[in-house]
Amino acid sequence: MTEAPESAGPNGRAHTRYTPGTPCWVSLMVHDMAATQAFYEELFGWEFQPGPAQLGPYVRALLDGQEVAGIGRLPPDRHLPVAWTPYLASDDVDLTAETVRLCGGTVGVGPLEAGDAGRLAIGSDPSGAVFGVWQAATHLGTGITGAPGTPAWNELLTFETAAVAKFYETVFGYEEKRAAGPDEVTLCLDGRPVAGVRGAGHALPRDRGPHWLTYFEVVDTEEAAERVTGLGGQVLVPAHDGAHGRTATVTDPEGARFALIQGPC
User: Which InterPro entries is this protein grouped with (predicted)?
Assistant: First the structure.
């Protein structure tokens, strides 16, 4: 469910430049990078290489030689939640950041340069959910999708969809399509689904509040969930059939939430 497939094959789809507004990258900030890398290496088969020095201790995860995600280290004096953050593509991150502010969101980091890779900002929507904005230069974003171990979908879990969906529509130009659930919408670009928004009301976890959830493709959801627990993570929502495939919600050993999804998105 991403953008601009360049070629298709048994190992997934390669990608070129992403249309503005499309989720193009996911990044995780943690306390123990070595342990986190070991967890995801065992779970998804990722390898790692150093990322831009301007971002501090940071690595890019590779699958079949293609970049799929980033992992960085949190400053020891910053008590921030450990969470996967999706980045939405932009042709002008400074203009997007200003629009975020004008529409009631906040910008907590940037806009700033990430070496010759590109330019980024990290902000939050009016409900408090954190997301990134990426203006590509040499680093276009996730290089491959449609294969086990790659990001497959991003969904915003929030209290209710109406106001927050309007924020993202105004900032990124999405069209809104009602989904199957009682308070679910799909955000589309040119009729193509790119992300979801789900209103959870009082069922939203109190320890997290509104947040983005990244889904990673797997061959077998139950088997992958078992491996998560064996590697020191937790299963929050056991495997079940959903709108896009068989899914489970899990955490890594530091508590970062993500979802596993079996089948095409």
Answer: Anthracycline_SecMetBiosynth, Glyas_Bleomycin-R_OHBP_Dase, Glyoxalase_6, Glyoxy/Ble-like_N, VOC_core
pLDDT tens for 121-152 read: 999 999 999 999 999 999 999 999 999 999 99
Distance CA 228, CA 44 (A): 10
Interatomic CA distance for residues 184 and 179, integer angstroms = 5
> What is the identity of the amino acid at 181?
G
Are 245 and 153 within 8 A, CB to CB?
A: no
Distance CA 181, CA 183 (A): 6
pTM over cut 0.70? yes
**DSSP code for 236:** E
Residue with tokens 């910053």: 78
Contact, 175 vs 43, CB < 8 A? Answer: no
**Does residue 119 contact residue 132 with C-beta atoms inside 8 Å?**
no
